[in-house]
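Dear support,

I submitted the protein below through the web form. The confirmation email said the job was done, but the results page showed an empty box. After a refresh the structure appeared. I'm attaching both so you can tell me whether what I see now is the final result or a partial one.
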Amino acid sequence: MSSAMAKVKTVQFRAQVPQDIDFLIRAIAPFKDSGKDWSLSDIVVEALLEWLQKPENRELVESHNILEGLERRGLTTNIYSNLPQ
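What the results page shows now:
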């Protein structure tokens, strides 16, 4: 298996959401026309990626050298590679 095909280890992430958000997410997921079935995990990951990419959160990651901490743990991310500097 090539490194490009290696599966990223996932961790469980638990959150509580208001009932209206739960209802909307579960109602919308089946209608997403992207060629795949969307799980709640897929939706949460997409939302968290967008949150991490917000300029104010990216600035915190950079100013506190959080990416270096990620690398010290043997982890990498490419979530900032396609964003304007």
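Response: this is the final, complete result; the empty box was a page-load delay. Residues 36-85 form one domain.
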